[in-house]
Each structure stands twice: as structure tokens, then as C-alpha cells.
User: Fold these one by one.
Assistant:
Number 1:
Amino acid sequence: MADHSLSIEDALAAREAQKIPVPEEVQEAVRTLLRWSGEDPEREGLVDTPKRVARAWKEYCEGYAENPAMHLARTFEEVGGYDELVLLKDIPFHSHCEHHMAPIIGKASIAYMPTDKVVGISKLARVLHGFARRLQVQERLTAEVAECIWENLKPDGVAVVIEASHSCMTARGVRTPGVSMTTSRLLGCFLEDARSREEVMSLMGY
Ligand SMILES: [Zn+2]
């Protein structure tokens, strides 16, 4: 029985491994992109670029290797009677859009209304980065962060507001620098109760 389940795991691991390209394949793809852009990949300044780009993309997308919910596993129940909202404001982040693989640079404000447990405040930023370090669309990133906190902390409410600028719009296409996009996801009391909503939005500066 144990041997049987082990062999299935091994087979799955082997199949999983096949889907992941080796670094040389990634570097070759970057050389192709360089030629496509009008460059000579053999030019001195570009010789090590494919290696750097491969490493950089591993880092930009390191969120795929984690489940952001793990950052919310350790909670504190002794909150000294504190039952007001907790807000982490203007957390800088970067991500990449899934349509152009172009940078998304922005800031997020994350709030929740605890019931009986809270997390270390830096964990909210870790959840954000866990989802941001993937290919994203801003609307989904906002929703994923809010829902992860909602499901794992079971608070009375969650509010996530993200303001970001998209390089695919500022540096290409309509080329409109300086514009940013705002998205929000409100759950629980922040969605249902106008006073809670006004309080959180004004603390966030909106
Ligand atoms: Zn885009």
C-alpha cells in the first residue's frame, strides 16, 4: 500500500519536472526575443543578459512556489480587548500583467476587522507579495488578497484597495504616463455597513 502511493507520487513528480524547462531553454528563448527586438544577442553587453533575465523571472514569479495562506497560519488570540480595525497602508509592491508580462507598480492598503484573532502586521504584506509575484491582472490580485484574509482569519470584514500603474499602458500602447488604476474589494462589514466602509476608506486616504 505504502509502496503503491509512493510510486504514484514519484510518477507525478517526474511529470511535473518535465513541464519545467531547463535554464538553457529559457536563455535560448531570451536570445530569440532579443533578435526579435532587433538586437544581436552575441553583442558583448548582451552576452550574459539571457542568464540574468531567466534568474529575474524566477524572482518576479516566485509567488507560484508558495501558498500565501501560509502567512496567516500563526495567529494571536490575546488582543487585549482590541476590536477595532487593523490597517496596513500604502504597501509598495510590484507585479507583472498577464497580458504583456509588463511591470505593474503600485501600492496596496489592506484592512480587516478582527473577531478573536489577529496576525503579525507584516503578514498582510507577505500575502500581498505572494499573489503579486505572479502574472496578474489588478482586479484578480485585489480579490485574491481580500479573499485569502477573509477565508483564513475569518474576520468581520476585509478591505483591500490597490492603486497601480501598468507599464503596458504607460510605456506602450496609448503611452499615457502618470495614470494609475484603482481597484477595491470589500467583504463583510466593510461591504454591508456604510459607517465601517466610510471609516476604512477615510483611514486609507480615499
Ligand atoms: Zn498588460
Number 2:
Amino acid sequence: MADRLKNKTAIISGGATGMGGASSKLFAAEGARVAIIDRNAEAAEATVAAIRAAGGEAAFWTADVSDEDAVNAAVRGVEATYGPANVLFNHAGTIVIKPFLETTLAEWEWLHAVNVRSMFLMTRAVLPGMISTGEGAIVCTSSISAVAATPMEVLYDTTKGAVHQFARAIAVEFRDRNIRCNAVCPGFIRTPHGLREIEDLQALGVDVSDAALAAQQGRIGEPEDVARAALYLASDESRFITGTHLFVDNGFTAV
Ligand SMILES: NC(=O)c1ccc[n+]([C@@H]2O[C@H](COP(=O)([O-])OP(=O)(O)OC[C@H]3O[C@@H](n4cnc5c(N)ncnc54)[C@H](O)[C@@H]3O)[C@@H](O)[C@H]2O)c1
């Protein structure tokens, strides 16, 4: 076991699978008590079991992070078990891939609820406890899509633009209370979300072939590539860094 998050309680929304799952495992291996909040109880249970089998400390709470009562209940549950959170990784999110003129108001509202309202609800629920400890680190999952648009992803790109600024706004308002807030902005990553995105874009004629991905970001990213960046922003090693956007895209947005 390493100790970059020793004695810290870390809440990870969407911590069951993909980059969230990789982060749950990495944060626990670095000494954190990991609290997964995810709607997928089966996957969350498997991730918790893997962490415990490796000698780490973790538990999960089932919640839809767009639901106010469910978020508040889950955070209260975490605090009752582990005490106030020192780290919050707002990672849960999803995507709608469709020609813009075929998208519906219901899809717009739903995606904003899952990707943006969730960050508002989670952060608002966690902050009072975090402030009571005198410090804290929040990491929000944004995306290359916050600054580089893809056809068929107007709804998604818009939510990630909001997340991008959410992280900054929280950083500015809470700096005087020793709370940092940053965003990780992944490129295309090999997760259930990322692989479905590539498949759906290809079906709609958007070129995200292996060759296109190789030209844009060298290769597809691995969940651990992002988990390591999130770990840095969650740990005290980044103590003078707040309100920043850390792109984990192997140069996609630099080209
Ligand atoms: N994979 C990529 O290429 C990529 C790139 C940039 C950003 N992202 C971001 O990563 C996140 C998706 O995660 P992933 O790629 O690790 O994939 P993933 O689909 O494996 O993980 C998403 C996790 O979030 C959970 N989740 C989704 N909606 C939820 C809800 N309403 N309530 C509670 N839990 C919920 C899922 O159960 C799952 O465990 C999103 O925020 C997405 O915008 C992904």
C-alpha cells in the first residue's frame, strides 16, 4: 500500500466502472477510505470486493446522482460510516449521441441532470463536512468535449462546458476555506462509455476509426491514465493548484 491519500475519505461518484472504477481502486491503494456512490449496485459491489481483497477500505452507496434526495441520503450515509469527506471525485456522467435535430427536450433535460445537476447536488451535499475538516479537494470530470466539439454531441458538449466552468467557480468561491476544485478532461478512453461513444459515432458516419484516433491522440486512453491524473489533483501534491483543467488526452486538444 502506498500513502498519497492516507487517512483521507474519498467519495467517488460513478466509482463502480471505467475511469471511476480505476480511480476507486487507485485511491484505495493509496490509503484512502473509498466511498463509491453509483447507480450500478452490482458493479459497485464488485469494485468494493476487489479493493477489500487487495487490502483496501471501501464501501458503496447506491444512488442516482441526479436525484436530490438520493444524493443527500448517500452522502449522509458515507459521513456516518467514514466521517466527512476530504476528497470528492465528481465522475458519474453519461452521453446522448444523435443528430441535433432528432434530440428531444426530455433528452436535453435528462443529460443536464445526470452530468451537471449531479455535480451541483454532490458538491453541495459534501462541502459542509469538508469545510468542517479545514481542507478538501474536489475533482470534476469534464472532457475534451468542453472545448473541442464533435458532431452528434451537442447536448453532451454543452454539459461538459458547464462542468468546466463549475469546477472554476467552486474553486474561486471556496479558496479561502482551503477547498480546491479542479477538472480532469479526458480524451477518448477505453471504458463502457467511451467504447459505446466510438461505436455510436461510427454508426452515424463520424470518423473515430483507429486511424483517426491515432492521429488525434496517439492511441485510445486507458482508465488508469485518467485515474492517475485524478489522484494527483485529489492529493496534497497539488496543494497550490485550484481552478485548473487538466487535459488527459495525449495532445488531442493541443493539435
Ligand atoms: N470514456 C471516455 O472516452 C470519456 C471521455 C471524456 C469524459 N468522460 C466522462 O467520464 C464519465 C463516464 O465514465 P467512464 O467513461 O469512466 O464510463 P463508465 O460508463 O464505465 O462509468 C460511468 C459510471 O457512472 C455511473 N453512472 C452513470 N450515470 C449515473 C447516475 N445517474 N447516477 C449514478 N451513477 C451513474 C455508471 O453506473 C458507471 O459506474 C462521464 O462523466 C463522461 O463525460 C468519458
Number 3:
Amino acid sequence: MSALKLLVLLSGDLVGSVTRTESSAKTEFQYDPDYLTGGATVPLSTRLPLARTRFGERAIKPYLEGLVPEDPQVRRRWADRWGTGQTDAISLLAAMGWDCPGAVQFTEPDRLAEMRERAHERIPCSEAEIGGRLRALHSEPSSWELPDGHWSLAGQQSKFAIIRADEQWFEAKGAAATTHIVKPGIGRLHHQALVEHATMRAASMVGVKTAGSQYREFGGEPAAVVERFDRVAAGPTVLRLHQEDLCQAAGRLPEDKYEVPHGPSLKDMMRVVANTSDDPARDARRLFDFLAINYVAGAPDGHSKNISLLLLPGRVEIAPLYDLASAFSFQYRKGLRDVALSIGGGRKIGEVMPRHWVEAGKTLGLSDEYVFNRVRQLASEFPDAFASVLDDISSDASDEIKRNTMTRLSRSNADLSAQMRKALSSDDRPKNTRGAPRTDRPLKTSRGTTTPASNGG
Ligand SMILES: Nc1ncnc2c1ncn2[C@@H]1O[C@H](COP(=O)(O)OP(=O)(O)OP(=O)(O)O)[C@@H](O)[C@H]1O
Ligand SMILES: [Mg+2]
């Protein structure tokens, strides 16, 4: 492998450099001393604290690999198209790192000025043109980069990002930041884009902090359109906010994004929160919502790349949830589905018992009463919310999804909410857990001991 150096920028500021030496082929990262002395408050990753240290491959690799697509075919296409030869993250980012998730950018040093001088260009695009791009994704699902290339989003599914402004759609060119992600859905699953939208919107309606979602048909092509939580409008310009997912934050490679067999568990995720969040109690509750809404919705894909941190100046928080999609709509065969993240040792939808929820609550520092109440509320409200999103759309597709989903979704959640009500009224529950935040077994972290999360949403 040849030697390579890439400058790393956050929100346009130079923060450090990533290097790969020819002899060892190992990647390293170092913050720029001027960034450290200039009052830096945002680290590149929560695994890379602001310090004058040379971070080795083990520290930087999960972050870098987590930025580029997981699909080896997409990586190969990128490498071929941009002549990078290698498909490892640093090679791909050398060619494609000018616009990444969050606020980070990578560039070869001799192209820094070119990257910085790019105009912010927005090219209006019609619904028919967006439909054309969606059709192209269906026929060539592993090709989802912008024509001008400088764009990268992780994940397995086809998607692209665009700008919504002044009630119009625009393609982003040059340095312009996109505001929405357009997902055509998983082709082999009927109406999956609409199922994803209904799940996201219903989650938001029942009080889970979720990225804004719309369902649209562009020139007859259906898509879920998700608002980017890592962008914020500031007058006519769009600012980038920094983010990393919990797979990166837990120091795991994307191939280990699922807890089984080697990925981050709820405990690992809580450790990240305890070590990094400016309000661990709030983020423990957000982690619990992530766990519970995936179970309630019958969404099997709640892995560690489907939950992220926002790294804001001086503070870190769990970002709004995204990529939530019920599988009740597609469960034609017999058998129970598993959720991705173990709930206190339980995983199968229909078989997670109050004692499992209690165990998960303990991991997060939440009282039994809090977890029972929250699960009961989500389970009793989610099915109606899901149905009402579909009623508002009122099409053949939404009718079909209702027919395929509602019986299973409602039955599963009626059982769950009955179980929670029973657990709440049960007299044999230990008295000291009623109402009060749990104070036993606090989690030990590198910051010391966490404050247990308080009750209430
Ligand atoms: N609303 C959002 N705002 C900002 N970034 C987002 C948003 N939604 C997704 N992302 C980023 O884009 C990545 C891919 O998106 P998403 O998870 O929706 O795609 P996917 O291909 O369906 O994923 P998977 O591989 O889990 O099936 C996410 O891991 C996250 O980093
Ligand atoms: Mg995802």
C-alpha cells in the first residue's frame, strides 16, 4: 500500500490529519496543535479525545470504516471509478471524503484550497428527475453516489441525499450541504419505503424523538424522505453538525454492528453514554426508547449503526432515531422475529417478559416503574398511530400494508401492554423500586460513576 496523508476538517476547520505509512500500511490520526490550543470543543470521535496523542490504527479504524458504505460491491465500484485501487476506508475517503455524514471532511493536502473554494451550488431538480434517480437505483442498487462523486453515507440500502428549500428540491453541488435523505426502500419487500415512513412517523407521534419523515412519490416512484438531523438551517445556509454512530463510538467495525455475535450490547451503549453525554440520564431514556420502539414496532434492525450521537460544541447527545421499519408487514411465514439488541437477555418478539425489561432498565439506571410505564404507553399507542399514518396516505399501497400489518401489530402490543399493566399492579414487586429511580448497581465508567437516570420521559 502506498503512503497517504489526508487532512481532516470539522465544519470547515482543520482539526488534524490521518496518515498511512508505506512500510506498515497502518493508519494513524493526530489532532492539529492549533485546533487543540484554539479552544476546540468537538472531538473527531468520542473514541479520540482532544489530546496531543498519536492515535493508532485500533483507535481510528472503526471511525473511518464506519463512514463509508458497507456493501463490498459499492466499495469496489467507488475504487474503480476513482482509481483508488484499494477499497479500505482511507483510500476511499481520499477520493470521496469531501462530503461525509456529519460535519467531517477529508482531503489530500494539495487539494485543500480547491475543496474550500468550491461554490455552494444548488441545482433545482424536478419530481420527474428525482423519480429517474430512484428508478436508476432499482436497476443498479449498488450505485448510489452523486454524479459529481463527493458524497458518502453509510448503510446497506440504496439512497441519495438532496436539498429541500423554498418548497423546492435541489441537487447539491460543490460545497452545498444536503438536507434530506431519499430512500426508495428495499425492493424485494413490498412497499417497504411506506412501511419505513409509517414506522418513523408513528414513533414520533407516540413521543419518541425521531428524525422527520415524509412519504412521497416522485414521478410514480415511492420513497421515504428523511430529514437530516446533522444539518441545521442558519438563514439561507445549511450548517453541518457532527455525528457518529454507536458502532463507531463503541470502537467496533461495521461488520460487528449487530450485537450477535460480536457487536455492542446495551451495556456497551450505556457505557458510551455515561462517558460522553452531557446528560447521561436523558440519553439513558433515549437508549431505552430505541430498545423499546424497535420491539413495539417489530423492527428487527436496531443495530449499533442505527443509533447515533450528535457531537455538538461542548456537548454530546443521542440523536433523533432513524431507519426504523416494522417487519410485521412482511412476516408471512410462521415464527417469531428477533430484535437486534438484547432486552435484558430476551430477544424474540412476543417472548420478552417483565423481568427482561427490568434487567434492561437496570443497565440504564431506570426504575422498574419507569420502564413498565414507558413500554405500556408505547405499546398501547403505537398501533393506532401507525394505522392513522396509513389512513392519511390512503392509497392501494397503504391499504395493503394495513391488511398485512395491523392484526399482528395490534395483537402483539395488546399482549405487551397487558403484561406491563399487570407488572405495574403486581404486589410482589419489590417496594423500593416503586416510583423511584433505581439507585443500585451504578455503572462504573472512565468518568467515575454515573448518576442513575431520573424518572419521567
Ligand atoms: N435522518 C438522518 N440524519 C442524518 N444522518 C442520517 C439520517 N438517517 C440516516 N443517517 C445516516 O446515514 C446512514 C444510513 O442511513 P440508514 O440507516 O437510514 O440506511 P440503511 O441503508 O437503511 O441502513 P442499514 O444498513 O441499517 O439497513 C446512517 O447509518 C446514518 O449515519
Ligand atoms: Mg441503517
